[in-house]
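Changelog note: in this version the structure field was regenerated for every chain. One regenerated record is shown below for reference.
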Amino acid sequence: MDSNRKTAIIVGVLFIIATAAPMISIAFIGSIYDADYLTTVSANESQVLIGVFLLSAMTAAIVSIPIMMFPILKKQNEQLALGYVGARIFEGFFSAVNVINILSLLSVSREFVNAEAAFASHLQTSGTLILAQFNWCSLLLDFPFTISALVINYLLYKSKLVPQWLSMLGFIGGAFWLATTPLRMFDVFPPSLEILALIIMVQEIIFAVWLIVKGFKSTATAS
């Protein structure tokens, strides 16, 4: 098995982790969105910690993907390949901050359930701020994520490392979700339409499976 084939398998697995882990984590950290979340987070501490583990795995995968892909992508365009690495590391930074946010919220929740009434209000304020930071980081990481999706799919399309229809789907999905990000920041994008993120999510899963099963095309060309 040559090095490119091994890289394709590893990257495919990492993409699956980066895509699936946050979706699965929702089942474990969903208590942070409860009306009385400071109470329920503490009551569901084990589940929240599992969610933190999944988000940590996602963060590790996000940062590892560009490191694995750089030697291949730089043959197509070294500047864009470096941009891809930078974008994904920036995304990983926001993801890592969110891991800390959840752990901080868990600590505040522990204190809240044992706090006296006078001190509880201060803990509620802290919890509100931490949760707001979590939501903002979840939104802001979409900027580097979608930019990285545009870069990698452009390079894949030009090089024909994978079928061009697959990279084109990823480019379209990334471009669309990037366009919605500022709208979501200003809260003028209906939450019900966030289902449209499925375009890039489905593409990444197909891309991951393709890499694991087929690998990169040996006929790829450098630009």
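Spot check on this record: Residues 23 and 54 are 9 Å apart (CA to CA). The chain has eight helices and no strands.
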